[in-house]
């Protein structure tokens, strides 16, 4: 028995919106503020440029026979500052400012890069959040509501699953099933307690992934068995045309395998090439074996 609090139990306003967006990872959609990051970086970049110019000017001023040792020795630079009745040399003070500014600049550069690496929300996730936002209207000030319209500046904190795009299609199909069957198969008691709304469903990610895994396994099985059976029937005929037909089947099913890998998984390009080459090699082995068997017969 869990002590779950439904989204509707939170006070209307920011508390309820925060509860909804934290109730499911696909609703963790927020603004990235790309423009502001760029403005701050540009501002700090020019501040560092000015400090760089000041350092070069200071070095040029000391590039003379009387003060040249200040450029080659920190100890001599400090002694010269004491002669000028200063606790630190102008160069040391300026380098300290540059160091602090560089640390801040590098930090915001790295943070901006990390934010840029976050994914954009899928169309389905954005549509779900926007539909809830406009139906519940948790915010009362128009300017504060504008963030939901800035789709190009929104990011999601949701980790992309291997079959994220295909998962979304499966979830859409599941939503069209009868409500009782859907709730029984793809939700849990804890998830059902998250909301009292009848039109909102929280599906179990693990159960969705299991269903997707089963479907993809069946697709791979069909793509392996069907061309083998078809090529076997063609190569057993034993004439020249049947061999060319088998090669045509090999090409077609290899292309289908590539399309399935590209659409159903998040495989990288080199992984896609490697898997396609291995698949094609398996079919070529079957063609050669069946052809040799047909010749002996």
Q: Strand sequence of the main sheet, in spatial order?
A: 1-2
What is the total domain count? 3
- Count of helical regions: 13
Overall shape: it is flat
Instruction: Round the mean pLDDT to the nearest integer and report it.
Output: 81
Q: Over the alpha carbons, how many angstroms does the gyration radius reach?
A: 32 Å
Question: How much helix is in the residues?
Answer: 55-70%
Q: Can you tell me the residue ranges where pLDDT is under 50 for at least 5 consecutive residues?
A: none
Q: Sheet bearing the most strands, described?
A: 2 strands, antiparallel
What order do the SSEs take from the amino end to the carboxyl end, as H and E? HEHHHHHHEHHHHHH
- What distance separates the N and C termini? 69 Å
Domain DUF6594: 14-284
Protein name: DUF6594 domain-containing protein
Transmembrane segments: 211-234, 246-265, 272-291
Pfam families: DUF6594
